[in-house]
Design a protein that fits this description.
By secondary structure, the protein is mainly alpha-helical. The protein is built from 9 helices and no strands.
Length: 194
């Protein structure tokens, strides 16, 4: 008789084990075999739910996205206008140890996955679209003259920050990023609507 396993819980356990391997041994050490060992089981325990190494990493990043979304919603709360825009950008330009680890996995995932027309609804593309939309909505709420352009600028700023924190985390502190965020938002909010 087959064992009844809760798929959601198993995927969460796999994500947690993936992060444990990455934290201990680095992003490149994340393999199906290493995660299975971390879980104390066979590789089938992992591949029944995530069949490839990239799916393994994507699963860990996806698990974090719901936590990030909740955290952002809490951070922004009921803020409106310019305060909402500033809070949204500031939140995106912060880093805690888990974020840095997940960004390393995210870079590993992006460097290994191929994008094509069929990937438009994939996990690798859903989050960026949602993030850009949140930035656009916050810019529009703040009365920025061109919210689409503002969203592009802020999205590139945020993604550049993610990469920069992986490359040189000591240089790109949350305080330094906050200073950049203030300057960019000031420019966007106070630009003349011509």
């Amino acid at each position: 008789m087959p064992i009844d396993v809760d798929e959601v819980q198993r995927r969460k356990a796999i994500a947690k084990a993936t992060l444990a391997v990455a934290a201990r041994d680095g992003a490149r050490a994340v393999t199906i075999r290493a995660v299975a060992k971390e879980l104390g089981g066979s590789t089938a325990m992992v591949t029944n739910y995530v069949p490839t190494r990239i799916a393994l990493i994507t699963n860990a990043v996806d698990a974090a996205e719901s936590r990030w979304r909740t955290d952002l919603d809490t951070h922004v709360g009921e803020l409106r206008g310019e305060d909402r825009l500033r809070a949204t950008v500031a939140w995106n330009l912060t880093t805690d140890p888990d974020d840095l680890l997940l960004r390393r996995l995210w870079v590993e995932m992006l460097s290994s996955v191929g994008f094509d027309a069929d990937s438009a609804g994939s996990p690798e593309t859903r989050e960026p679209h949602a993030s850009r939309a949140e930035l656009r909505d916050a810019a529009e709420d703040a009365g920025v003259p061109d919210p689409e352009l503002a969203a592009d600028i802020l999205f590139l700023l945020v993604r550049g920050y993610f990469i920069s924190t992986v490359e040189d985390p000591e240089l790109w502190t949350t305080d330094r990023a906050a200073e950049v965020a203030r300057a960019v938002v000031d420019m966007l909010v106070h630009v003349d609507a011509r």
